[in-house]
Amino acid sequence: MSDAVLQVEVVSAERLVWSGEASMVRARTTEGELGILPNHAPLLSLLVQGFVDIRASDDESWVVAVDAGFVSVAANRVSILAGRALPSHEIELEKRRQDLERRRATGGDVDDAEEAAEQAWLEAQVRAVEHAS
């Protein structure tokens, strides 16, 4: 593998979501937004709900909605491990917006951790598709 590329894998609890070579990866962690380029220093950080933006080696952009998890960088390998991960092209934007609006309108108990997590997951999916557009 060339030093000019990253080998990236995005994995959810259910499946391998994306794998390939990339020139850059952006992700949000508990420490803030992280930009990863080839030869990045090794790190392990907590991923927060949102999206991961991958600039593939062919200059194509891949955006993946992610749940909380981990990001690991070592020797030009980037591993994104999330409880849930969904490529933006698999997300039905209008359906997710309606689901989110319905959840907000019914006044879902955002003090309940499970309800808050579901609402945040819907928001992450909407942001991923909007960012990809």
Automatic annotation (TrEMBL):
GO molecular function, one term: hydrolase activity
Subcellular location: Cell membrane
Gene3D superfamilies linked: F0F1 ATP synthase delta/epsilon subunit, N-terminal
Domain ATP synthase F1 complex delta/epsilon subunit N-terminal residues, every copy: 6-85
Keywords: ATP synthesis, Cell membrane, CF(1), Hydrogen ion transport, Hydrolase, Ion transport, Membrane, Transport
Keyword Transport: yes
GO CC list: plasma membrane; proton-transporting ATP synthase complex
Top-level taxon of the source organism: Bacteria
Entry keyword Repeat: no
Protein role: Produces ATP from ADP in the presence of a proton gradient across the membrane.
PANTHER family named among the record's database cross-references: ATP SYNTHASE DELTA/EPSILON CHAIN, ATP SYNTHASE EPSILON CHAIN, CHLOROPLASTIC
Protein name per its UniProtKB record: ATP synthase epsilon chain
Species per Swiss-Prot/TrEMBL record: uncultured Nocardioidaceae bacterium
Organism lineage: Bacteria, Bacillati, Actinomycetota, Actinomycetes, Propionibacteriales
